[in-house]
Write a structure and sequence with these properties.
By secondary structure, this protein is an alpha+beta fold. It contains six helices and 14 strands. The chain is globular and about 50 Å long. It catalyses: 5-amino-1-(5-phospho-D-ribosyl)imidazole-4-carboxylate + L-aspartate + ATP = (2S)-2-[5-amino-1-(5-phospho-beta-D-ribosyl)imidazole-4-carboxamido]succinate + ADP + phosphate + 2 H(+).
């Protein structure tokens, strides 16, 4: 597979075209950011651990009925993925109240929901990724009702599959975000699933093992990602 032109560059990943029009090369960089890009730093080894972490999770999801854009890892920090037309929305599932939800609604941190809480957000750093609902998505043409229904159903399936995986590793999947993109045949799970885009707590200690360590200046960010990977049984 030949790596060609830069297609897009995000806060922590870059996408490149390849000699196959249907495939892109996703490069995970060591760059780390928080607060809509206001806080930035390069953390050595983060790109590599995130590439491996994402590959492990995507393959596990594929084995459990969730179709994704992931094809294969091709280097320590690069993977091949199916080219998608990404929807400009993020799907967020919360199993426990924390983070922006508590600030937005003034609720106590740590409340465990009987049923997972689902929210849509518009992908727009300049606007702070605002909360949106189904009607916004349809009114502005960001997606159809059929796509909304699919994203909700698929995201709850992801939650069921991954909560079981993390629980068996003595970890709590607190919340996470996922994104979807269109192919000619429908929607696929796209982007990534790494500790950059979810919250993970140690079940015994309650210690944060995700990007909150970077947000809150707790240190040992990459090391915490490695702890999670080890607990989940990844080879790193």
């Amino acid at each position: 597979m030949i790596k060609k032109d830069l297609v897009s560059k995000g806060k922590a990943k870059s996408l490149y075209s390849t000699d196959d029009d249907g495939l892109l090369l996703m490069e995970y960089r060591d760059d780390t950011s928080a607060f809509d890009g206001k806080k930035k730093e390069a953390l050595k080894g983060k790109g590599e651990i995130n590439n491996k972490f994402n590959g492990f999770i995507m393959k596990h999801l594929q084995q459990n009925g969730v179709e994704t854009h992931f094809v294969e890892e091709i280097s320590p920090n690069e993977s091949l993925v199916t080219r998608l037309d990404m929807l400009p929305v993020e799907c967020v599932v919360r199993n426990i109240a924390t983070g922006s939800l508590c600030r937005r609604l003034g609720v106590e941190e740590g409340i465990k929901f009987k049923d997972p809480l689902f929210e849509f957000f518009l992908k727009d750093d300049d606007l702070g990724d605002p909360l949106i609902n189904d009607n916004h998505i349809i009114a502005f043409g960001w997606g159809t009702q059929e796509e909304i229904d699919f994203m909700k159903k698929q995201t709850f399936l992801i939650n069921k599959v991954l909560c079981t995986l993390f629980d068996e590793a003595n970890l709590i999947l607190v919340d996470y975000k996922v994104e979807y993109g269109r192919t000619s045949e429908g929607l696929l799970l796209g982007d990534e699933f790494t500790p950059d885009g979810c919250r993970i707590w140690d079940k015994d200690t309650g210690e944060s093992l995700d990007k909150d360590r970077f947000r809150k200046d707790l240190g040992d960010v990459v090391e915490s990602y490695q702890i999670v990977a080890h607990k989940l049984g990844m080879e790193i």
